[in-house]
């Protein structure tokens, strides 16, 4: 593995950083999140049309740039640095790979070029607060309990009007960018208890009847969440038939999602650390900059090591997500939580005011761990998949008897 970035990757980073530095100051972020969409639609169109951001990792045959996951990780890190409110994660990281993996040729041809061009935003809607479980990050998506379990709750799918039609009934309560997405990928339970299975459906909320979308108050306004209510809503099955391995596709996608979320968390942590270093160099106490005190230097050095370690893990996971996605996300979320908490403290009384920019990063850290974690469950799931404790259940009784 060559760990050095290519000239193209460096150019993506430089271009994106310069553009976001111009348009994503803290006041710009606060203005954008209070719009109806929850982000700056003009900036999103510019990122899509000029930089090809939503189609960065999509194949060229579907209008994408044709780059790989590493290039998208670079972009995610830069959007994390700026705390950019945008549909990038929901559209390009959650929805587009599932359409590419499970969709029919007609569905891919109809949807992916529009996503790549920034003309269509999408998101993944799963019941309850189970996004991390559905993606296989904190639990096994194959057990189906997160999707309703074939009994009650969640979102249920049944036959609809016309041959091959479906109708959905239920709700998903924490859907990322669900209030503004123009296409919903809804995970629903079909077949009842005897033939229970989880399927993915396409719902166009502006055209389908029986869809109620409510934007919720979220801890991190840059990651808006919505409640999606479906009442006998017509839907299109994603894929050619209802025999696709949806939970397997979700778990596979989850590895890449974790790596890209880790890169975004690393970007946020790195930016919070940079802002804190700049502050302690300027803030004076007892006639000298507080950054010159040894205790402060040690704290900042520890943060730097944590952020760089998380960055290495994130890019390794982007290169090979099947092996390291969940662990990289756990390390990045932990680094972000610790760095932002220290940033608040090292800014002193100023940092504790809710309006200070340090709290934008602190709220991102707390909200991300609630939505995609927590860290200990991410690590527990990674340990299960690696079989680290496979023999614990059988050896423990013998050990206890020996004692």
Return the CATH architecture of the largest domain: Up-down Bundle
How far is the N terminus from the C terminus? 47 Å
Q: Tally of extended strands?
A: 9
Instruction: Assign the structural class, choosing from mainly alpha, mainly beta, alpha/beta, alpha+beta, or little secondary structure.
Output: alpha+beta
The CATH topology of the largest domain corresponds to Butyryl-CoA Dehydrogenase, subunit A, domain 3
Structure description:
The chain has helices spanning 7-23, 26-33, 41-51, 69-82, 88-102, 105-116, 131-134, 246-282, 294-319, 321-346, 348-351, 358-372, 375-386, 392-402; strands at residues 122-125, 155-159, 166-176, 183-190, 197-203, 211-216, 225-237, 284-285, 288-289. It has 403 residues and is α+β, with helices and mostly antiparallel strands. It has 3 domains: 7-120, Butyryl-Coa Dehydrogenase, subunit A, domain 1 (Orthogonal Bundle); 123-244, Butyryl-CoA Dehydrogenase, subunit A, domain 2, CATH 2.40.110.10; 253-386, Butyryl-CoA Dehydrogenase, subunit A, domain 3 (Up-down Bundle).
Notable traits:
two-stranded antiparallel sheet; Butyryl-CoA Dehydrogenase, subunit A, domain 3; Butyryl-CoA Dehydrogenase, subunit A, domain 2; five-stranded mixed barrel; alpha+beta; 14 helices; single chain
At a glance:
This protein is an alpha+beta fold and 403 residues long.
Task: Record the SSE blueprint.
Elements: H1 7-23, H2 26-33, H3 41-51, H4 69-82, H5 88-102, H6 105-116, E1 122-125, H7 131-134, E2 155-159, E3 166-176, E4 183-190, E5 197-203, E6 211-216, E7 225-237, H8 246-282, E8 284-285, E9 288-289, H9 294-319, H10 321-346, H11 348-351, H12 358-372, H13 375-386, H14 392-402
Helix pairs in contact: 1-4, 4-8, 5-6, 5-8, 8-9, 8-10, 8-12, 9-10, 10-12, 10-13
């Amino acid at each position: 593995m060559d760990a050095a970035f290519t000239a193209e990757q460096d150019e993506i980073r430089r271009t994106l950083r310069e553009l976001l530095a111009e348009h994503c100051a803290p006041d710009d972020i606060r203005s954008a999140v209070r719009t109806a969409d929850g982000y700056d639609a003009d900036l999103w169109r510019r990122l899509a049309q000029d930089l090809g951001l939503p189609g960065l990792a999509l194949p060229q045959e579907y209008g994408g740039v044709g780059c790989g996951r590493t290039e998208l990780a670079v972009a995610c890190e830069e959007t994390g640095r700026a705390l950019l409110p945008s549909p990038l994660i929901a559209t390009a990281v959650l929805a587009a790979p599932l359409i590419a993996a499970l969709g029919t040729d007609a569905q891919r041809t109809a949807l992916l070029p529009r996503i790549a061009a920034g003309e269509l935003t999408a998101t993944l809607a799963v019941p309850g607060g189970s996004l991390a479980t559905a993606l296989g990050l904190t639990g096994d998506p194959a057990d189906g309990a997160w999707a309703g379990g074939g009994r009650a709750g969640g979102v249920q799918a049944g036959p609809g009007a016309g041959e091959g039609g479906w109708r959905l009934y239920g709700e998903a309560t924490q859907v990322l960018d669900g209030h503004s997405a123009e296409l919903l990928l809804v995970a629903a339970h079909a077949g009842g208890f005897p033939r229970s299975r989880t399927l993915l459906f396409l719902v166009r909320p502006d055209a389908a009847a029986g869809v109620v979308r409510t934007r919720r108050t979220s801890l991190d306004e840059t990651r808006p969440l919505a409640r999606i209510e479906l009442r006998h809503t017509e839907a299109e099955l994603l894929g050619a038939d209802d025999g696709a391995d949806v939970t397997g596709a979700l778990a596979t996608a989850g590895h890449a999602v974790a790596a890209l979320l880790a890169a975004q968390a690393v970007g946020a942590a790195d930016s919070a650390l940079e802002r804190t270093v700049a502050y302690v160099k300027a803030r004076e106490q007892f006639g000298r900059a507080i950054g010159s005190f040894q205790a402060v230097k040690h704290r900042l050095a520890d943060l730097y090591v944590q952020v760089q370690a998380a960055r290495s893990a994130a890019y390794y996971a982007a290169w090979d997500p099947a092996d390291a996605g969940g662990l990289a996300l756990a390390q990045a979320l932990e680094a972000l939580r610790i760095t932002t908490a220290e940033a608040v403290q090292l800014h002193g009384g100023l940092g504790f005011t809710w309006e200070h920019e340090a709290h934008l990063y602190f709220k991102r850290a707390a909200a991300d761990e609630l939505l995609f974690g927590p860290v200990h469950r991410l690590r527990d799931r990674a340990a299960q998949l690696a079989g680290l404790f496979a023999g614990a259940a059988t050896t423990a009784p013998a050990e206890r008897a020996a004692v």
